[in-house]
């Protein structure tokens, strides 16, 4: 399935890197991104580990775990991993703020 992890990719994230540089979602993605309801999240990081590397859309931000909508294809991989069902479709997503983009750029090499 297209949302499964691709081990054969050898860690290449050129599409992801381009999305980070452009700070934009792929135009051909039909599904809206996902969001994490922080009031329900237990910060177990299961979603972060379950997010396919080619998207790498989930980050720890202090005590919160967040999904970057510009990097999220809307696939169900994180939803399937979440033990408390706190991940929802985000039809009304807003662009990611500058401070979080700086965090992403600082952690991009380790992603």
Automatic annotation (TrEMBL):
Keyword Iron in annotation: yes
The keyword Iron-sulfur is assigned to this record: yes
Domain 4Fe-4S ferredoxin-type: 32-61, 63-92
InterPro entries associated with the record: 4Fe4S_Fe-S-bd, 4Fe4S_Fe_S_CS
Keyword line: Iron, Iron-sulfur, Metal-binding
Pfam family, one: Fer4_4
Coiled coil: none
Protein name: 4Fe-4S ferredoxin
Organism: Streptomyces physcomitrii
């Amino acid at each position: 399935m297209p949302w499964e992890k691709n081990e054969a990719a050898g860690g290449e994230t050129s599409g992801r890197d381009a999305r980070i540089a452009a700070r934009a979602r792929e135009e051909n993605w039909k599904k809206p991104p996902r969001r994490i309801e922080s009031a329900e999240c237990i910060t177990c990081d299961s979603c972060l580990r379950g997010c396919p590397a080619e998207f790498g859309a989930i980050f720890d931000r202090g005590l919160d775990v967040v999904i970057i909508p510009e990097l999220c294809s809307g696939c169900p991989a994180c939803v399937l991993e979440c033990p408390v069902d706190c991940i929802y479709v985000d039809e009304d997503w807003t662009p990611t703020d500058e401070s979080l983009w700086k965090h992403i750029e600082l952690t991009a090499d380790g992603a």
